[in-house]
Specification:
With about 300 residues, this protein is of the alpha/beta class. It contains 13 helices and five strands.
């Protein structure tokens, strides 16, 4: 089947109806089901990585909105449909804010379900087509670069485009896709790669404001004449905090996660990371005052890119 589904619903009859609709209409394959929000529900969904998740709002254990929020923190890429008999506009708005694509009211209407799922499938097909086009263009670009190298006999250290791509790959692992600060971090790494002495900006006694100011003068003013050092500083700090939360959530889910092991101890102070994990584990106790070491993060990112 082209698309995969996962159903999270405490009513067995409802699960059967949804599964039968998906099968009868040849919409895809149901690769997993869970009857409630207890246990390692987030890890199970992330492991299966369905294209479309159908989740009930009201269930024993974690409710549907909480599950959606935690999946988005972990950068779940599937589309999410929520089903419920709740019709309060405030709750429905909260569900959309958490990241769902559609909200279906119970009792289930077969025609509505088919229409919604076909709509999502069409979106997925379009997204995949765009990804294939982008990948094809990237391949053509690389082939052109290789031809130029063969023609001129030149090769050398990675150029700025390769550095940019490597940086974006790592920022994706860190859960920073779409974060405003991720653009600043890319520009910072490009700048550090271009200057002869990184110690002038990342040295033990250097202030990061010098780095932000230099990056702004070299790159950011081309796009935004109003950009200032403080704005860059705030965006970067928010991005690094988001990265810490993402890595802490992965570590909480699976302490042996390859991404957690790769980035956790290197990019963050581990005692602060543990505090963040405890905060996520017991959110009712309030937020801990976790701190992020921005210079450590940028250093780790830069030297990993240069390896």
């Amino acid at each position: 089947m082209e698309f995969t589904f996962f159903i999270l619903e405490d009513d067995p009859a409802c699960r059967r109806i949804l599964g039968r609709i998906i099968e009868d209409e040849r919409l895809g394959e149901v690769i997993g089901e869970l009857p409630d929000g207890y246990g390692n529900v987030i890890g199970t969904i992330m492991y299966n990585q369905p294209d479309i998740l159908i989740v009930d709002l009201l269930m024993p254990g974690k409710d549907g909105i909480e599950i959606v929020e935690q999946l988005r923190i972990r950068n779940f890429r599937g589309k999410i449909v929520m089903i419920s008999q709740v019709e309060k506009k405030e709750i429905i708005a909260q569900a959309y804010a958490a990241g769902i694509e559609f909200y279906i009211n119970k009792p289930i209407n077969r025609i509505e379900v088919i229409s919604v799922l076909n709509n999502i499938i069409e979106r997925l097909r379009m997204e995949r087509s765009f990804e294939q086009m982008r990948d094809s263009l990237a391949v053509l670009d690389k082939v052109g670069s290789l031809r130029r190298e063969l023609k001129t006999g030149e090769s050398g250290p990675p150029d700025q485009e390769i550095i940019k791509e490597r940086t974006r790959e790592i920022l994706t692992d860190l859960g920073l896709v779409g974060e405003p600060g991720s653009h600043d971090l890319v520009q910072i790494i490009l700048f550090l790669n271009a200057v002869p002495q990184t110690e002038n900006y990342l040295g033990e006694y250097r202030h990061l404001k010098d780095l932000y100011r230099a990056v702004r003068d070299k790159y950011l003013q081309e796009y935004d004449r109003k950009s200032d050092v403080r704005a860059i500083e705030q965006r970067v700090r928010r991005a690094v905090k988001q990265a810490m939360e993402h890595i802490a959530a992965l570590g909480l889910e699976d302490y042996n996660s390859p991404i957690f092991e790769r980035y956790g101890p290197k990019y963050f102070d581990f005692s602060e990371l543990r505090l963040k994990m405890k905060e996520l584990e017991n959110p009712k106790k309030g937020q801990a005052r976790t701190r992020v070491n921005i210079k450590q993060f940028i250093n780790a990112l830069y030297w990993e890119i240069k390896r």
